[in-house]
Amino acid sequence: MEPILCSKGSLQFISFILSHGKLGKFQEIIRPFMTENSDEISQKFRELEISRKLPPYVLIGLHTCGDLAKMVLDLFLESQDASAVIDVGCCYYTQITEAGKMQLMDASTFPLSESLRNSGIELTSSAIKLGTYSPYQYEILPSGDPTVSGLTLHFRAVAEIVLIRIFPKRNYRIKKINLNCYQSWEMYLSQLVKKLNVRDDTTQEWHPVSMEIDQRLREEFFSAWEKYGNLGNRITVWIVLQMLVAPVYEAIILYDRALYLSQHEGIEAKLVPLFRPDISPRNVAVVGLRNSKK
């Protein structure tokens, strides 16, 4: 694998070119780690270190979703040949089940550090999810963007009232709706019924809504909009309040991960901002350094 450094503004991106021959070797190395059990991964990683007598190396985790971040930090702590770890998280609020599915996190992923556990600090899964929101990205969006005005949430909130009434089991999902469709609620509703899928309770398969449900959606949405359509300003206030506390929640999560590393002997931990948060909301790396043995 030959790394290539590519400059783009003040950032550098590293990409790897894998030839067919080298790709096979790469797959051979990572295949033993294809397991759902984090303890097995740690053990296999240690065996690889011993068998190959690896030189000091750095573990890097990019966009480590949920408890994958903890897995990377634990691999570093258990791998004595790893001289450092650099981890940039992603969605803090998820974790992988034994069946390989994503679910909301529990106490096994936050807090990690003894300091926060002993302090009694707790965050709900909703608060941790809020920590992934970025107020800085609102600075680069045009003032007329429906995301800034809260129109996307306003339309979706009214739609949810109707959808929950029609589908109390919440066995529905909505594909992404283009921002151009938020110019009016008529345009939004037209796209909503096209993007809406419902899961059959018997077959568990997803399918578009029937014509009957389509008509009912339109009628009840019109009625709901007459009742709740003038509450858009409250949505805007709600967004502002969320953006005020989001950085606080994220800071707590990141400090917890740094404290988790530093509570282990011989490990120095730092939080390093890599670039401006308006470029990417996940701009802080959790860095752990292993003190050299004398």
3D structure, described in words:
With 294 residues, this protein is of the alpha+beta class. It has helices spanning 20-30, 38-52, 68-78, 114-119, 125-130, 146-149, 151-166, 185-195, 211-228, 232-262; strands at 2-8, 11-17, 57-64, 82-89, 94-96, 102-104, 172-174, 196-199, 206-208, 267-273, 284-290. Helix 2 runs parallel beside helix 3 (68-78) and helix 7 (151-166) crosses helix 9 (211-228). The longest helix is centred in the C-terminal third of the chain and has 31 residues, at 232-262. It starts with a strand and ends with a strand.
Helix/strand layout:
Layout: E1 2-8, E2 11-17, H1 20-30, H2 38-52, E3 57-64, H3 68-78, E4 82-89, E5 94-96, E6 102-104, H4 114-119, H5 125-130, H6 146-149, H7 151-166, E7 172-174, H8 185-195, E8 196-199, E9 206-208, H9 211-228, H10 232-262, E10 267-273, E11 284-290
Parallel strand pairs: 3-4
Antiparallel strand pairs: 1-2, 4-11, 5-6, 7-8, 8-9, 10-11
Key descriptive features of the protein:
alpha+beta, three-stranded antiparallel sheet, four-stranded mixed sheet, disordered N terminus, single chain, 294 residues, 11 strands
Task: Tell me briefly what this model is.
The chain is an alpha+beta fold and 294 residues long. Helices cover 44% and strands 20% of the residues. The two termini are 33 Å apart.
